[in-house]
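so my prof wants the structure for this chain in the tokens format not the other one, which i didnt know existed until like an hour ago. anyway here's the sequence
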Amino acid sequence: MNDLSHVRADGSAHMVDVTDKAVTSREATARAVLRTRTDVVGRIASGDLPKGEALATARIAGIMGAKRTPDLIPLCHPLPLSGVELDLVPREDRVEIIARVRTRGVTGVEMEALTAATVAALTVYDMIKAVDHLATIEGVQVLSKSGGKSGDWSRADAGTSGGSETSGEAKTRGETEREDQG
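here's what i got, hopefully its the right format
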């Protein structure tokens, strides 16, 4: 267990000490997909739902979620977020949610991007459950990250909608550098 950054030698979980890490610009992008019926997507796009306008509400909820990530995920560091952007795009039988989060800090913002995308998807679900309680949330994943010691990376399918990556498709700049040195 000594190789795990959040686990002490005795097996207890702890918050990683980032005191000596360099402050760098960091960014992460995450995605979530809410699947529903095409008629419901039409209602989402037109703002014609019993609870009101879902997209604007979900965008604000996602931003709030990113800001509250350390309150939800026990070992996350609180970060001064410098930017949170959410795009919610209605498409046929789904709403694709892309969250981009930026900071200048000592640790990454992948968890904040995942939280933003997920909270936005949960909010859309809450807004449509009266018209489709069978809607699903899927494909929650980090699409890319930049900054920090581990370098930059992005999923091979980051530009596609709803795809998932196999284990070897994403490669960080750090992995490439290690291969070149090794």
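also thought this was worth mentioning. Residues 160-182 have pLDDT under 50 and may be disordered.
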